[in-house]
């Protein structure tokens, strides 16, 4: 039982970026109840690895199924509910500038996806843990 509880605190965060003439942009989404976030989920017992969990989370939360390349970026102590986050950089070709994906989490929600420059703080309402997560990602990728 203790191992199961500990496993629920391991989170996987697939990081999707794109290059533009203005620099690197990161994929974010607006949760209708919880503000602006990164795609993130719990490492499940059936996941073969952190990398496969990242691919699963992208499909579930963003509807992204085409992932061409994965790169593990490291782990990060979130200081939020004792969660340990694992970041995976995911190369996903030809994504639109914005879209809405209906996610089945928590009874179903429409998540509004968009791109934001990685070198700026999250614009809009977001939990401080996501602000800190983007700072960590920025320190690794830029």
Automatic annotation (TrEMBL):
One of its GO terms (molecular function) is catalytic activity. Residues 6-141 form the Nudix hydrolase domain. It comes from the Bacteria. This is DNA mismatch repair protein MutT. It comes from Bacterioplanes sanyensis.
